[in-house]
């Protein structure tokens, strides 16, 4: 009688694949080989989620038994795959820590592209370490701005409101527009936002636009008038006055000091 499996294979997972899996388990047991401990990974990701740079440093410098899994036969491809896994885990940990999903996912996309462009193993390892610190710093900055409130404490409607604002920053935003999109009463949303965040929705939008303007001044070649138009300001002078009020510098001064020189 033919032996039947208690767990039928998914049609896209072949018997050959499962045989390789079985052989690997057997070989690793025979040779006493084990993967890195899962609790070490948890410590790394928890430190990112909490924005705890000191604990992340300690975790990255731990000595532990085990080895990193083999994710490809080619050495460079293997390390790149490992880096992609680390980006993915760190990205999710940062979201749990309060980083807006769209920001975290976009950074993840960019980092993975950077990994793919690497031509040597050492550079990939350096990038892998740097990306963990970058995500942890982002969480740390958010945590400091919340005065101790965690991401889990944030109101559901406020999370949705922030997500909507972020995805519509390239244009004019009004309280009524946001409230309608979220199917909420405008007055209720305004009061709730101010109660939870300590600033009005208008102030929050302005600050987010200024943050994005800073980023564009540092990394892009867009003119001041183009940045103003992209961010929904009435004019370059309107952006300039709001920027100076918030940052304490003119647009030109900020770009000259922090702009990336080609």
The coarse overall form would be elongated
Helical content band: 55-70%
Structural class determined from secondary elements: mainly alpha
* Number of DSSP helical runs: 13
The helix/strand order is HHHHHHHHHHHHH
Strand proportion, as a percent range, falls in under 5%
**Strand segment tally:** 0
Radius of gyration: 24 Å
Describe the 3D structure.
- This protein has 262 residues and is mainly alpha-helical.
- It folds into two domains: 108 residues; 104 residues, Homeodomain-like (Arc Repressor Mutant, subunit A, Orthogonal Bundle), CATH 1.10.10.
- Helices cover 68% and strands 0% of the residues.
- The longest helix is centred in the middle third of the chain and has 25 residues.
Topology:
Layout: H1 15-31, H2 38-49, H3 53-60, H4 75-96, H5 101-117, H6 121-145, H7 156-167, H8 175-181, H9 186-197, H10 201-219, H11 224-230, H12 236-247, H13 251-258
Give a concise summary:
The chain has 262 residues and is mainly alpha-helical.
Which labels suit this protein?
262 residues; mainly alpha; Arc Repressor Mutant, subunit A; 2 domains; 68% helix; 0% strand; elongated; disordered N terminus
């Amino acid at each position: 009688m033919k032996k039947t499996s208690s767990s039928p294979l998914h049609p896209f997972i072949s018997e050959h694949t499962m045989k390789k899996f079985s052989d690997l388990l057997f070989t690793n047991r025979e040779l006493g080989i084990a993967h890195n401990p899962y609790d070490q990974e948890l410590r790394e990701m928890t430190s990112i989620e909490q924005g705890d740079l000191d604990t992340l440093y300690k975790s990255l410098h731990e000595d532990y038994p085990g080895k990193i899994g083999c994710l490809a036969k080619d050495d460079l491809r293997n390390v790149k795959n490992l880096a992609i896994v680390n980006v993915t885990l760190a990205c999710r940990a940062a979201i749990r820590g309060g980083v807006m999903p769209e920001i975290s996912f976009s950074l993840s996309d960019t980092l993975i592209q950077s990994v793919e462009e690497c031509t040597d193993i050492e550079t990939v390892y350096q990038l892998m370490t740097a990306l963990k610190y970058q995500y942890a710093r982002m969480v740390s900055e958010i945590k400091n701005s919340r005065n101790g409130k965690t991401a889990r404490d944030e109101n559901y409607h406020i999370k949705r409101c922030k997500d909507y604002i972020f995805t519509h920053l390239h244009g004019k935003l009004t309280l009524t527009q946001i409230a309608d999109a979220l199917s909420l009463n405008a007055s209720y949303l305004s009061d709730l936002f101010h109660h939870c965040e300590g600033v009005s929705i208008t102030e929050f939008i302005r600050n987010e636009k200024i943050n994005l303007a800073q980023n564009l001044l540092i990394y892009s070649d867009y003119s001041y008038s183009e940045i103003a138009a992209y961010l929904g300001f009435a004019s370059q002078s309107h952006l300039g006055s709001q920027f100076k009020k918030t940052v304490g510098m003119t647009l030109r001064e900020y770009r000259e000091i922090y702009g990336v020189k080609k």
